[in-house]
Amino acid sequence: MGSHIIIESNFYDKAEELRGFFDQQFANPREAHEMRFVWDKWFVEDQYAFTRTPSYHYFPEQMYLDFQSFLIQWGQENLGCSNISPPWLSYYTEGDFQNWHADVPHGPWAFVFSLSPNDITYRGGKTQILNPNTLNYWEYFDPSIGLEREDICTYIDSPFNQLTLFDPRFPHRVEPVHGTQDPTKGRLVIHGWFTEPNPFVKGYQNIDELTDPLNHQLGPLLDKLSSSQIGTGTCSYKMEVSTEGLVTSVNEVTNTVIVSDPDSQPEFESLKQALMSFKLPENTEKYQITLPLVFS
Prior knowledge:
The chain contains eight helices and 17 strands. By secondary structure, the chain is of the alpha+beta class. It is globular and about 65 Å long.
């Protein structure tokens, strides 16, 4: 997987509750009740065909809020994104698909959380994402090497309780699903986008006290980076800070920046070194900052 794709298996420990509620609504196919009539068959000729409903209206309120809170907190700590778009719950049965598209400008990361059956019997339904060397085909072209499907695209299955994230600027699609008309046996996912990149602080009591010293030291650094025209995308860093306010480590946790010049890559190393030199407020305990930087 490239840096534009992140996969987290066994993501949510209450995933069975979400799946169980969905199955319960379809337990008796002859029974008509209000939860059977909340679905929209979204169809755009040659582009989209699947059935969806807003997740936040479908599940019991607390069940959904527990999942939403867990997902948002994960995004804050690991991506530096402070929110998500209102997510869809969608199922795919015979013939359903999404054709090639790119999601701009919904957010820096698209997410797909799978509630598909543990025992998948349908065919297809994989997320396909064009590989970077496909998008820059002639730059990477080698006349001595042939290409097959997995050289051109990355294929991602959707096993139960897997969270898949990817840079939505990359053209992607969902393969047509075949083999079932039954919603309980089809591809079932909660999907949307992580949004609002903002610093996230863990372990520091008064976050407002961090704003001025962080901005004061970030300002000149960002001005320098903007003038260097690194490229476009988002990179996030996790900074560990001691009780004395000294940065003890800086780790790059995500990087979707498409560099305009491969020689600009060392800029990221100098960025990490600059973050290591920050002097931040003291605290009674060590704390952590997830810092997203957006380049455009």
